[in-house]
Specification:
Mean pLDDT: 88
Strand order of the largest sheet: 1-4
Strand content: 5-15%
Order of helices and strands: HHEEEEH
Number of domains: 1
Helix content: 25-40%
Largest sheet: 2 strands, antiparallel
Structural class: alpha+beta
């Protein structure tokens, strides 16, 4: 699937958002190629975890610093110009944990099945 050329990228992405189908952007050849390039440049390691001691953490996704929903015009941009005029990176190869933290998802420890306390002392 390719990004349509009959209208601006941002217009198409806004249409996808309105239809609840933003996932279609992430299936385009253009995004897949760009994301692969970002991952390759990072050696498929999480760029946010690199400074932590220990073994490298595998990157699982490419994160937009300027979120696609808020800035659809930057969806295929590696960089953007900040309000202070500096050029900044827009795309980062990161792991699931860092991606969830960036979006404020799953805050706190996640429970595994079987870790729950019993409902009663009888341990139903």
């Amino acid at each position: 699937m390719r990004v349509p050329t009959d209208r601006p990228l941002a217009s198409w992405i806004r249409e996808l958002i309105a239809m609840g189908r933003l996932y279609r952007f992430y299936k385009t050849d253009e995004w897949i190629e760009l994301a692969g390039s970002v991952m390759d440049a990072a050696r498929r390691e999480c760029e946010w975890c690199r400074d932590n001691p220990g073994k490298p953490v595998r990157a699982t996704c490419v994160h937009h610093e300027m979120e696609v929903r808020d800035h659809p015009e930057l969806a295929l941009s590696r960089t953007y110009t900040a309000a202070d005029g500096t050029e900044r990176r827009n795309l980062w190869a990161i792991c699931d944990a860092c991606h969830n933290r960036a979006h404020g998802r799953f805050q706190g420890a996640r429970k595994k099945r079987g870790d729950e306390k019993p409902l009663t002392p009888e341990m139903w």
